Amino acid sequence: MKAAVSVITDSNDTIVAIATAPGEGGIGIVRLSGALAESLLASCFVSLAGACPLQSHRLYYGHFRDSTDRVIDEVMAVLMRAPKSYTREDVAEVHCHGGSVVLRRILDRFIDGGARLARPGEFTFRAFLNGRIDLSRAEAVMDVIRSRSESACRVAVSQLEGGLSRRTYAFKETVADLLAEVEAGIDFPEEDLPCSDRLRLLSITDSLLKEISTITESFETGRILREGLSILIFGKPNVGKSSLMNALLGEARAIVSNIAGTTRDTVEESLVLRGLPLRLIDTAGVRDTTDSVEVLGVKRAQAKVAGADLILLVVDGSQELDGYDFKALASCDPEKALLVVNKSDLGVLPLSSEFSNLSSVEVSALDPAGVSKLLDAIYDYFTRSSGSEGRDTPLISDRRHRHALVGAMEALGRFRLGLQRDDPPECSALELREALQSLGEITGETAPDEILDKIFSRFCIGK
Question: C-alpha distances in angstroms, 144 versus 97, 123, 149, 159?
């Protein structure tokens, strides 16, 4: 497989990078990978346990020295010989004090010795090239690092452990078996495919399509767990949208005022609810106005409606509903809207029939119990719409994986149709090869260089 040019130029190089986050810390780690890793470590590190050769996968205490034999730092060092390492190459790590000067001096010492600075994601890229992990598991490494909630981390760890890989390889094996049978018809054209065999192939294809579809349909749930549930707080001015956002966050994030039109732009904040990441978006109130800035804010609010996972349509329960309330309602998809009847501490008037059809929660931004009820309703909406409870199939959260699975399903669908029409086996074989191509993009076997480059360039340097 060719390497993506901007990720790596020569996999025979020994690479080095600081593997810990920038800034001061108790510990900093410098990582090496490649043929020179052991010799470079031996030339710079002096174990205080003696001059014997370092054993693999054991941590040694000693001094890291510069080219004049002066001590740079008191460190711990470990050597991990191939193939039992992250990259399946010789890997060495130096664990030093986490100051930027010390880390830079150690890094420069290795570079002066013949290593080159690693590019973003190059350690993981080598693990992929050397067959330790496939592409979907490599992507999961970054998802684990960037997880913003326990739920997102669980999805990423499941993928890192090979949940999606195993299912994908199983799908590929089934498609390959189908292809072998079809190609037998190409090799022996005088033998028509018996009806019983055609029915059996149709049955196998239907079963495969059902399994792939189940995983493909998990994308929306996986996406929300990875990116967060986008919740738009929407309604006319002065119904308490900003107060509600502050109450949900437990802090005064949005400006609250009795003056209509205080919020003129979208205000976004993050919140984790029972392991579910939320993105709360406060918006300008929906009304007619001559203020050019507020007009722009209202337009932005209405533009956000289509992309929101859930809309909290806020009304003032203590006041009669007016045309602006109905205008806000008309902008919402009832399937994605939750009516929040705010200011319930002032009394709640009856709702018109148009609003009574929506699921609703009565709250007061001043009452923690009402806010808690709203949080329960948000969580119930997610679990009800996603069907995430009791799932025993892998969740996918990456659009690239979904696209590849959809491509495989489309090719298998065409193969199925060809079987029903008794198309020539050459046509059927072509569709099965396209299905294999799509599935291979998930594991990386058929992923083009530009995709590999895009994936690994998102990684941090040192991973």
Answer: 25, 16, 10, 9
Interior CA angle at 358 toward 354 and 362, to 5°?
110
| pLDDT the model gives residue 385 | 64
List residues bridging with 71 in a β-sheet: 65
Q: What is the pTM of this model?
A: 0.80
Q: Residue 413 pLDDT > 50, yes or no?
A: yes
Adjacency order of strands within the sheet including 276-282: 267-273, 276-282, 229-234, 310-316, 337-342, 360-362
CATH (residue range 139-218+395-444): 1.20.120.430
Is the torsion defined by CA of 387, 392, 396, 401 positive or negative?
A: negative
Output the pLDDT for position 31.
97
Could you tell me where in the chain the CATH 3.40.50.300 domains are found? 231-386
CATH architecture observed for domain 15-132? 2-Layer Sandwich (3.30)
Amino acid found at 181: E
Query: Distance between CA 362 and CA 374 in Å, rounded?
Result: 8
User: What is the residue whose two structure tokens read 């007016």?
Assistant: 322
How many Cβ atoms sit within 10 Å of the Cβ of residue 173?
A: 11
- CB distance 46 to 4 below 8 Å: no
Kindly report, residue by residue over 372-406, the tens digit of the pLDDT. 888 998 888 887 766 555 456 788 989 999 999 99
| Mean pLDDT along residues 176-188 | 83
- pLDDT tens digit sequence for 244-301: 888 888 765 544 444 444 444 567 888 888 878 888 888 777 755 555 555 566 667 6
What is the CATH number that goes with domain 231-386?
Answer: 3.40.50.300
CA gap 36, 89 in Å, rounded? 10
Ranking 126-140, 266-280, 415-429 by mean pLDDT, the lowest is 266-280
Q: Is residue 138 over pLDDT 70?
A: yes
